[in-house]
Amino acid sequence: MSEERTPDAVDDDADPVESGGDLTEYEPASSETTGTADTEPETRRCQETRQCPEIRRCLVCGTEVPAADSKCPLCRSMDIAGADADRATDSTALVPDVVTSDGGQSVPVAETDASDPAGIDLSDPAYYLNRELSELAFQRRVLAEALDRENPLLERVKFLDIFTRNMDEFFRKRVGGLKQQMAAGITERTPDGRTPEEQWIEVLETARPMFERQVECYRESIRPALADAGIHITDYDDLSPTERSELRSYFEYSVLPTLTPLTFDPAHPFPFISNQSLSLAVLTREEPGDDLTFSRVKIPRNHVRFVEVGDERYVPLEQIVRSNLNLLFPDVTVVDTGMFRVTRNAEVGRDEEVAEDLTEMIAEVIAERRFATAVRLEVEADMPAAALSILQRQLDLDDREVFRLGGPLEFRDFEALTELDRPDLKLDEWTPQPHPRLTDSDAAGSDIFTEIRRDDVLIHHPYHSFEATVQRFLETAARDPDVLAIKAAIYRTASDSQVIESLIEAARNGKQVAVMVELKARFDEENNLEWAKRLEEEGIHVAYGTIGYKTHTKTSLVVRDEGDGVQLYSHVGTGNYHSETAKTYEDLGLLTADRGVGQDLVKLFNYFTGYSLHEEYRKLLIAPGNMRERFVDLIRAEAERARAGEPASITAKMNRLEDPDLVRELYEASMAGVDIDLVVRDICRLRPGLTGVSETIDVYSIVGRFLEHSRVFRFHAGGEPEHYIGSADWMTRNLNNRVETVVPIDDPRLREELDRILDTALSDTRNAWEMRSDGTYVRRESVPGEPIRDSHAQLMRRAERAVREKRTGGL
User: Fold this and answer.
1) Please, what is the average pLDDT of the chain?
2) How far apart are CA 467 and CA 301, in angstroms?
């Protein structure tokens, strides 16, 4: 969603998307409903069809199917679960016999008495799902948004684009990493019991039908629907002679001069194939009986992919190139052609400990990615055997790494179609709202600090405007004569970042400015390098990350001289200082004048520019310092209360739950009787609903209009709940190998608001999927007779209503 997208889609480490690069973080979309109350019906799914005695709709894509079926054959072949799917693999079928993994591999579980917690071995790999296969399960849910016929048509097109970006990043990062491990001879097993090679094989087998379903969806559903709506993706061969003549002239004068055919023969080495570029393999011969000659023609991305030939009629550029190759290869016979696309590994490693200059090291990594080993080859279904053989041999890829697809190989450029002026085919536009606490503040003055000092402010993007909250906080600080210093940690930011411009303005105004710029933010390294250089040129103190750790915290600190002394104002968030992704990523942030939080941030920023990392903090949970220990203590405290017969519960919302040790802590808490609700957008190693192990755990995933990106943690704590928000998922990398910040929410009003946000997510029956014990997901459906609830639509209405009430005094 990366974009920045991704969505690591999809992931903060690449972010879709999640990443302008985590839809990598990606930029999902879903349908919006209108109304005035949070409880009103949001009738997105066809109730009449459900009640028809003869037909119903596939619970994934909406296709009509016989009443006896819950899914259409294509969705069933992908194992995308619907609400009525067979639950035979849940709970009791899994313990103590055999646990069927999300990849279809069965792993024996030791014979135990599930009713006896002491007899359950939680180190058994069967209790842990595979990270890579769980990631692919998430991508299935992303693809399901493109399949869902109840989404507006151009939103479905957008999800074709998002799915491609997410899977590109997955292959570059995760599959590339597995291939590196295999090449290094690593056979160590993951917590779920798989070697790198076993994972690699299962990943390729799992991904193949997903790509096939994507092109099938476009070919059989979306392309015809576009034509019905008056948007025609037309084949070159279907054009009239006059239209073909016009496009031939366009090719000759506009496209041909930019093409560079690269031939492979005894006089020319095999050409370099750039990462993720759409290419045309051309087989030619000079005379009948001569050997075939292979050439590669890159389809240029600096030309529009869809060339307009009339009112909303478009021809793909690759078809124009292919149909006019005689202009590019004169005096030879073009025997055959085939489209292909290569994906290269992004895992280019360097040793930070021995690097003399981190900026030079990162620049080298960026350059080397261009020439990294290939990890995937996508080709047309009728790719010539001779061309395919050459590509496989030269790229060193075996048959399992080749994906033959009966449709477009590149959907990223389909994003252009979503920009057409067709509001009837899109969601209604959403404009992030002002925060009601800040609407009366003077943007040119310092009233924002008065408001923060009065009470903490909880910001919820994209429902609250980034520009009118976080960006304004920093802009005001840059101009305020009483501000002495500003410090900020930047993980990802926009290419035209006003946040960075504010920091530069602050330095020019004589304030002390220190910025931690993480150069290792995957796929945003180049952007961050440019900003770091710009900041240094302005005399700003810049730290380039920390040796051995990736700095992922999203924090800023303003030091202000006030009448009663120096005051510290802090921002701690779950999302990046990125004005564009803040419009589509769901994130939370806290603006506070709490002295303890401010003093903790002073320690943290001193670590960025100094050397040692503190382990003791007044208020904040900091990784790799006290965060893991604190989360474990909070989980165990709930377990102890449950064992004592007291009410005990945990509610957590995050992007990914991967850390095996925390999964085990959650299992033990469930075995003690703790009620646990988890909203995990992406990867989840934990298996909910296992008899005697995780019966009290429910796991949901929300995929819809906005990318769920916030991290929220709530513990019952004996009736006085503790709430936290921050940058860290429950992943080993976040808790051990990154600098992360989580802040407690102490204000009772803000705790109530977090409760409302969590409850809204847990009641969603439009965008939510429920996880089953085998790692598959079921679309969550509303109870018959009850309204369908769309959490995104509810929160949009709530934000609009809060502004109206503020302006009218609650009338």
Assistant:
1) 84
2) 32
β partners of residue 622: 741
* DSSP run (H or E) holding 327: helix 325-328
**Amino acid found at 497:** S
- Does residue 538 surpass a pLDDT of 70? yes
Structure tokens at 473: 């906080």
Angle between helices 498-508 and 470-479 (to 10 degrees): 10
pLDDT at 515: 86
Q: Cα angle at 765 between 764 and 770, to 5 degrees?
A: 90
Give the CA distances from residue 794 to residues 74, 580, 681, 790, in Å, rounded to whole numbers and listed in that order. 32, 22, 19, 6
d(CA 676, CA 697) in angstroms, rounded, equals 5
Produce one character per residue of 714-726: b if its CB has 16 or more CB atoms within 10 Å, e if not: bbbeeeebbbbbb
Measured between alpha carbons, how far is 640 from 529 in angstroms, rounded to an integer? 48
For residue 427, give every residue at least 6 positions away whose Cβ sits within 8 Å of its Cβ, in sequence order, or none.
29, 30, 31, 32, 152, 155, 705
CA angle 255, 421, 430 (to 5 degrees): 125
Task: Give me the residues paired with residue 566 across strands.
Answer: 561
Active site residue 460: no
**What SS3 class is residue 381?**
coil
Nearest to 381 by CA among 250, 219, 528, 527: 219
Q: Closest Cα to residue 1, out of 525, 12, 15? A: 15
| Helix/strand/coil for 254 | helix
Query: Both tokens of residue 99?
Result: 């646990």
Euclidean distance between CA atoms 577 and 586, whole angstroms: 13
Whether a cis peptide bond, with omega within 30° of 0, leads into 271 is no
Choosing from 552, 709, 716, 723, the catalytic residue is: 552
Q: Cβ(499)–Cβ(471) under 8 Å?
A: yes
DSSP H stretches of helix in 542-696:
595-609, 627-643, 660-672
Q: Which residues pair with 460 in a beta bridge?
A: 588
Both tokens of 207, joined, read 């991904």
Q: Measured between alpha carbons, how far is 457 from 68 in angstroms, rounded to an integer? A: 52
pLDDT digits (tens, 9 = 90+) for 499-535: 889 999 999 999 999 988 875 545 455 666 776 777 7
**What is the H or E stretch that residue 170 is in?**
helix 153-170
Residue 116, pLDDT score? 58
- The full DSSP string for 197-230 is HHHHHHHHHHHHHHHHHHHHHIIIIIHHHHHHTT
The answer to whether the Cα torsion of 182, 185, 188, 189 is positive or negative is positive
Query: Could you tell me whether strands 585-592 and 707-708 are parallel, antiparallel, or unpaired per DSSP bridges?
Result: parallel
Q: How far apart are CA 603 and CA 295, in angstroms?
A: 59
Instruction: Annotate 673-696 with DSSP letters as a single string.
Output: T-EEEEEESS-B-B-TT-TTTTTT
Closest by CA position to 739, among listed 532, 493, 600, 546: 546
Hey, which bits of 30-178 come out as E strands?
Answer: 55-57, 64-66, 98-100, 106-108
Name the DSSP class of 292. P
Single-letter amino acid code for the residue at 456: D
Q: Minimal CA–CA distance to 226: which of 301, 306, 167, 300?
A: 306
Q: How far apart are the first and last CA of the chain?
A: 38
Q: How many residues appear in the chain? A: 811
Residues 202, 44: contact at Cβ < 8 Å? no
What is the full DSSP assignment across 128-161? B--HHHHHHHHHHHHHHHHH-TTS-HHHHHHHHH
Q: What's this model's pTM, rounded to 2 decimal places?
A: 0.85
Residues 514 and 531: their CA atoms lie apart, in Å, by 13
Q: What is the pLDDT of residues 91-128, one digit of tens each?
A: 323 333 333 333 433 434 444 444 556 679 999 999 99
Residue 61 phi, psi dihedral angles, 5° rounding: -105, -10
Pick from 336, 347, 37, 22: nearest CA to 174: 347
What b/e readout covers 248-273, taking b as 16+ CB neighbours within 10 angstroms? eebbeeebeeebeebebeeeeebbeb
